[in-house]
Inverse folding.
């Protein structure tokens, strides 16, 4: 109609088949065996978890996988009151997203932390990995972390 | 290098959440009025740099319908696919090369009405690890950064809320801002929807529809166009690692480096003393003290004190985001360029109620990526 | 006044192929960077800044350079992302040029890539026109995105618009579909001499191409480009650094460069009049500007080789004309007398061109890297032209028939 503003919306959906790559495939294989694998830089000895094929500091190619311990320290966290999926922010029962320094690793691993009240959680606590009973080779095999 | 490059024109749209014109028209009207404001036609522009993104536009090669609207037809044009301050940086380089005398840099998006910013941001997270796990995103990274800052420096939730109120009030006084919060208070901020603690909805920037543009010129060309050029005295840019677990969220290495480069170029030894105001591209209010400190505008860990003394207020020692910053309007791709436009307006005494008295040297910042992974810094100076 | 900029190294990730299920996007890019560095004495930390780009809706990762920063050694360094459709690679290269020419940096790396096995590029291309439904119908793209033919040859997407251009070209040049078959065959056999090319068909003939089905007349599957995965990295340095590195012999100097933008229609407007889709006025304008900058008066004599961006084989005939390398309408004749072959008088795409290899965000940069390798005398596997190359021209094309880039590289820098 003259004088009216028309705003048409065209939803677009694309499908992608993204590859996880060499290092993460190895990591996922490790999860199936209830192992947490990192990758070690031959130059600076840093161990990255999850593994990646290049050291960002030394620019060296990495291929030495090492198993790290399943316990570590909670270095940082946020109490989440929402989930964001597909851009949709949805309310959720409060849960803890932690940044965990595993023994033997130099990078921090993000994971859900359970077994501690959301108003009691604090940095510095020791946490350990809890596995799904039946692992299938996916990120969710490493179910969450809880106080050690 | 060593040529002087001036900003001879700058303009932003009135940002909104429901821009009912097409982005092509929004951009056309902005650029046309900018040209007319400074008394030039499109023919006076030698080269054009856009900042847009195929994801935010929902269209591959998103600039195909935009370039004719900005007057780039039959001209040398290119596009950075990140924050708009990168477009200004590339335009600056083109003039420094000596191949061009004038350049337009423009950034825009319809991030208020056409898509949900968290969705576009979720596509930034890698599809191999972070995206399928759904824990780490722009919001949760900001929360992790905010919490560690608060713990380390005794910065309380009420301090953060007070800082947020400062930005929201500035935004209310800014005719270009999209967000208008009736009487924002510490309690209204803390009472808003909790997201990832300590972040609430009120701390999140206002993803909006909008655009901003600047015209850069070599010294000779600047003299032809304006009698009050603003000079770009320093620029810097840098990128951090993507991996959150490797980053120091408080140090902000890439922002620090971008700032250091810009200060070195501008001959600034003490940013605290030599800079009169800063416009920072904060996607979340909690980023403000962290960024300002990484840029050396405040002492490390001084957030509590700064908020208590009102140091970052419009009339404070170091006004930060006197425009309200992205909390007032954050059109993706334009936000960093809007910072530059706001700095220019301040230096020319055009910022109305938010005017910083006697502002002579300003800092504009733009960022891109999760947790401000890539950063750009501009130092702009008024001569007289 | 102006700073001279030299290309000192080119690296590919390996051979371009249709699928790389073994790696993710950063892992695809990394070897190109390592190989480019490996051909010099430079270490990663010697690179002062990076300019990078791809067409990210094709892989569904918004700004994959962020994720890949460690893999191209960009963490802790200035990084700029540039993307402009088909011309992306050339736009990235040109932005890297300006990084050096501005005086801000002396050593810069440009990287372009695409990993097309992760998405559907033709759907990605339809995404340009989808919001403008009328344009879509006008263009009449082939919506069927099923793969067919050799090595994942894809039709659809932009083929519809291109067939108008191909028809127009043929009638202007008084040529037939057999000329498109012939040039397509030449490209595939050139590709067989390039160890990095995707579709390698040694001794490919006109008859082999003619066997492939028509998509929209006069374009066949054999005239379209494959969807490839691959990455290219190039190192650009200032003149003073080139001297310091002792690298003034085997370098390619950037003598002229430019891009141009027309309007998004199959037949671009010139002075208010719509032209036929094979006019490509913009290309002529940009080429002229670039030749002037490079001090080239007669491109037919002073330029020895060209790498042109042809998503469709008829363009391998059209672009040399628009770039002023042969007279208008004379490409079919030049092709027939062998002038476009590797040993001919004006070799076109000794690399095999885009119709043999198309990793979109890399393709327009590969034109520049291949032109540079020809100047440096380093094109591998028998695709180095026998003539001494004083000047080579690289062309890029994209958008909706509207973006053009031209880059001229040569053995001796322009005196400023």
């Amino acid at each position: 109609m003259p004088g009216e503003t028309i705003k048409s919306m065209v939803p677009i959906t694309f499908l992608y088949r993204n590859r996880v790559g060499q290092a993460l495939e190895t990591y996922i294989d490790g999860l199936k065996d209830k192992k947490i694998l990192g990758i070690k830089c031959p130059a600076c000895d840093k161990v990255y978890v999850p593994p990646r094929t290049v050291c960002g500091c030394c620019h060296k190619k990495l291929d030495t996988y090492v198993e790290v311990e399943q316990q570590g320290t909670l270095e940082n966290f946020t109490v989440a009151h929402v989930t964001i999926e597909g851009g949709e922010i949805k309310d959720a029962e409060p849960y803890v997203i932690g940044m965990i320094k595993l023994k033997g690793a130099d990078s921090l691993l993000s994971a859900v932390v359970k077994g501690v009240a959301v108003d009691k959680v604090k940095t510095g606590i020791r946490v350990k990995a809890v596995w799904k009973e039946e692992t299938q080779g996916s990120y969710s095999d490493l179910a969450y972390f809880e106080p050690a | 290098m060593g040529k002087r490059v001036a900003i001879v024109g700058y303009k932003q749209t009135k940002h909104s959440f429901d821009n009912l014109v097409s982005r092509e028209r929004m951009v056309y009207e902005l650029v046309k009025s900018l040209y007319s404001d400074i008394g030039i036609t499109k023919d006076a522009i030698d080269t054009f740099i856009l900042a847009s993104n195929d994801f935010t536009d929902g269209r591959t090669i998103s600039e195909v319908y935009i370039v004719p609207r900005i007057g780039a037809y039959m001209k040398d044009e290119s596009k950075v696919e990140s924050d708009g301050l990168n477009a200004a940086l590339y335009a600056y380089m083109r003039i420094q090369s000596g191949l061009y005398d004038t350049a337009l840099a423009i950034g825009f998006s319809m991030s208020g009405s056409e898509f949900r910013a968290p969705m576009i941001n979720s596509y930034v997270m890698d599809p191999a690890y972070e995206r399928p796990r759904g824990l780490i995103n722009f919001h949760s990274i900001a929360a992790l950064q905010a919490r560690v800052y608060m713990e380390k420096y005794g910065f309380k939730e009420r301090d953060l809320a007070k800082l947020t109120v400062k930005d929201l009030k500035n935004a209310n006084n800014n005719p270009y801002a999209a967000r208008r919060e009736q009487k924002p208070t510490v309690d209204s901020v803390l009472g808003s929807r909790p997201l990832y603690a300590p972040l609430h909805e009120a701390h999140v920037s206002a993803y909006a529809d909008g655009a901003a543009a600047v015209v850069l010129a070599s010294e000779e060309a600047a003299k032809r166009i304006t009698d009050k050029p603003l000079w770009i005295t320093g620029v810097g840019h840098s990128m951090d690692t993507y991996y959150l677990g490797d980053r120091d969220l408080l140090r902000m290495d890439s922002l620090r480096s971008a700032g250091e480069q810009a200060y070195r170029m501008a001959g600034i030894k003490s940013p605290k003393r030599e800079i009169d105001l800063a416009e920072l591209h904060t996607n979340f209010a909690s980023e403000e003290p962290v960024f300002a400190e990484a840029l050396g505008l405040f002492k490390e860990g001084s957030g509590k004190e700064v908020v208590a003394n009102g140091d970052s207020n419009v009339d404070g020692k170091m006004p930060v985001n006197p425009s309200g910053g992205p909390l007032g309007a954050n059109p993706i791709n334009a936000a960093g360029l809007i910072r530059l436009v706001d700095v220019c307006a301040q230096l020319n005494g055009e910022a109305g109620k938010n005017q910083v008295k006697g502002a002579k040297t300003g800092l504009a910042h733009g960022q891109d990526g999760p947790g401000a992974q890539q950063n750009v810094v501009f130092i702009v100076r008024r001569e007289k | 006044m102006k700073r001279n900029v030299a290309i000192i190294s080119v690296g590919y990730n390996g051979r371009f192929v249709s699928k790389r299920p073994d790696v993710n996007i950063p892992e695809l890019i990394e070897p190109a960077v390592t190989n480019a560095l490996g051909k010099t004495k430079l270490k990663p930390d010697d690179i002062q800044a990076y300019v990078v780009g791809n067409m990210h809706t094709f892989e569904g990762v918004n700004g994959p350079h962020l994720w890949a920063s460690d893999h191209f050694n960009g963490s802790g360094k200035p990084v700029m992302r540039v993307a402009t459709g088909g011309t992306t690679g050339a736009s990235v290269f040109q932005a890297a040029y300006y990084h050096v020419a501005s005086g801000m940096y002396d050593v810069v790396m440009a990287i372009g890539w695409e990993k097309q096995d992760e998405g559907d590029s033709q759907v990605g291309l339809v995404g340009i026109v989808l919001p403008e439904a009328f344009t879509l119908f006008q263009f009449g793209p082939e919506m069927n995105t099923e793969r067919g033919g050799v090595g994942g040859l894809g039709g659809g997407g932009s083929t519809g618009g291109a067939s108008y251009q191909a028809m127009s070209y043929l009638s202007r040049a008084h040529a037939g579909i057999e000329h498109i078959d012939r040039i397509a065959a030449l490209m595939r056999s050139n590709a067989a001499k390039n160890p990095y090319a995707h579709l390698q068909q040694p001794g490919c003939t006109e008859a082999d191409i003619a066997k492939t089905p028509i998509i929209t007349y006069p374009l066949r599957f054999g005239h379209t480009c494959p969807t490839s995965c691959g990455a290219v990295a190039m190192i650009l340095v200032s003149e003073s650094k080139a001297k310091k590195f002792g690298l003034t012999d085997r370098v390619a100097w950037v003598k002229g460069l430019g891009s141009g933008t027309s309007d998004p229609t199959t037949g671009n407007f010139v002075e208010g009049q719509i032209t036929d889709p094979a006019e490509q006025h913009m290309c002529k304008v940009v080429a002229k500007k670039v030749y002037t900058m490079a001090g080239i008066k007669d491109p037919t004599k002073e330029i020895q080789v060209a790498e042109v961006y042809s998503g469709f084989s008829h363009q391998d005939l059209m672009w040399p004309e628009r770039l002023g390398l042969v007279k208008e309408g004379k490409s079919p004749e030049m092709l027939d007398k062998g002038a476009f072959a590797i040993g001919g008088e004006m070799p076109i795409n000794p690399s095999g061109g885009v119709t043999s290899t198309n990793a979109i965000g890399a393709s327009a940069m590969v034109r520049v890297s291949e032109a540079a390798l020809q100047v440096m005398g380093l094109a591998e596997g028998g695709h180095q032209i026998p003539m001494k190359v004083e000047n080579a021209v690289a062309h890029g094309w994209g958008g909706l028939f509207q973006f053009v880039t031209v880059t001229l590289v040569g053995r001796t820098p322009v005196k400023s």
Observations:
- Chain A has a mean pLDDT of 92.
- Helices of chain A lie at 22-32.
- Chain A has one helix and eight strands.
- Chain A touches chain B at residues 5, 7, 9-10, 12, 16, 18-21, 24, 48-50, 52, 56, 76-89, 91, 97, 99, 107-112, 123, 139 (CB under 8 Å).
